[in-house]
Write a structure and sequence with these properties.
Blueprint (H helix, E strand, L loop, with lengths): L1 H28 L2 H8 L3 H8 L7 H10 L20 H15 L5 H30 L1
Length: 138
């Protein structure tokens, strides 16, 4: 039974891996075929992997992850700075969440800045609808 539990856990991680690769393929490249072409990676390997028609060797999966600049974090590792740009607002939110999770004191200025940012995000989402309604009413 212990082996079965490990197998199920591995499948859960594998499913998560496939889902993440597919998400990256769609969001950053448009689709898995374009991703494979852009990364100079065999399209058939990506297709078979995402369609669960085959399970590639671990070195093949790692090669794809390397080309995607993806990293695997184990429980004893800390995440490095993300690739690309992180906004000051996102950094403030991360700081607030880290402080809350660790049970540490939350700086009131950070908390207030984060709350203002969240409020403005909701306002931005509501405003396009209002302007769209005004446009159709005219």
């Amino acid at each position: 039974m212990h082996l079965t539990m490990r197998y199920l856990q591995a499948m859960t991680n594998y499913e998560k891996l496939l889902s993440s690769i597919e998400k990256i393929a769609i969001e950053q490249f448009g689709n898995p075929t374009k991703m494979a072409d852009s990364l100079d990676f065999p399209q058939s390997t990506v297709s078979k992997m995402l369609n669960k028609k085959s399970c590639p060797r671990i070195d093949t999966v790692c090669e794809l992850l390397d080309k995607l600049n993806a990293q695997i974090l184990f429980p004893d590792e800390h995440q490095t700075e993300p690739q690309g740009c992180i906004t000051p607002e996102a950094k403030a939110i991360d700081t607030l969440i880290t402080a809350m999770r660790s049970g540490g004191a939350v700086d009131a200025a950070i908390r207030d800045a984060v709350l203002r940012q969240i409020e403005s995000m909701f306002e931005k989402k509501e405003n396009p609808k209002e302007s769209e309604e005004r446009r159709f009413a005219s």
